Amino acid sequence: MMLAEKKILIRNQSFILTNQRAMFWEESSALIFSDLHLGKTAHFRKNGIALPDNLIQNDLQRLGDLIHHFQPQKLIIVGDFLHAGKNSELYIFHTWKIQFPILKIILIKGNHDRLSKDHLQKLGVDEIYATYEEDELIFSHEKLENQEKFVISGHFHPGVRVKTAVHRFLRFPSYIVTPQQLILPAFSSFTGLDTKNHPEKCQYFFFTEDGLYEI
């Protein structure tokens, strides 16, 4: 894993953005990400769409590498941890989680997180919320309006179009930051990119496999 990092301050809290689709909150010792969409590739294969078998394994390997690097006390998953109902990828995650027995998992439920609380807890999720507040921050899968506190959300799978030297546009996944919110990129590598539905006057921190860039 080639790791690129960028530290930013939000409400006097330090966050390390990475090019590996997650960020680390130093003061809370929390690794934060959104939109893993566990079960998505298995769901597509079940419906006759041929996809590689190792997509979720690669995402979990990347997540494990980030955990080993940052040594967080907890994961904060900002929605769409799951994609479909029960399928083989849930067992893959349950087996993967065994290597991190004391790691706390906090889930803010997204529109795809439809399994019951009991099933989520059996997967290793410790706490489940519709929205979650810590210090001066609110975590919500979808953006919240008219909030005094800073909102960290996901859902949109944000990306940005960047013009190259040969006048072509390339699309990259991105963090989006405004004075009131941060929108996380999708953690899953098997997602599209929304390059249009962005807030006004925002900063972009887009990334490639080996770099992280601000525009």
Automatic annotation (TrEMBL):
Q: Where in this chain does the record put each Calcineurin-like phosphoesterase domain? A: 31-142
Q: Which domain of life is it from?
A: Bacteria
Species this protein is from: Kaistella haifensis DSM 19056
- A Pfam family hit: Metallophos
Q: What is the lineage of its organism?
A: Bacteria, Pseudomonadati, Bacteroidota, Flavobacteriia, Flavobacteriales
Enumerate the InterPro entries for this protein. Calcineurin-like_PHP, Metallo-depent_PP-like, PdeM-like, Pesterase_MJ0037-like
A GO MF label: hydrolase activity
UniProt name for this protein:
Calcineurin-like phosphoesterase domain-containing protein
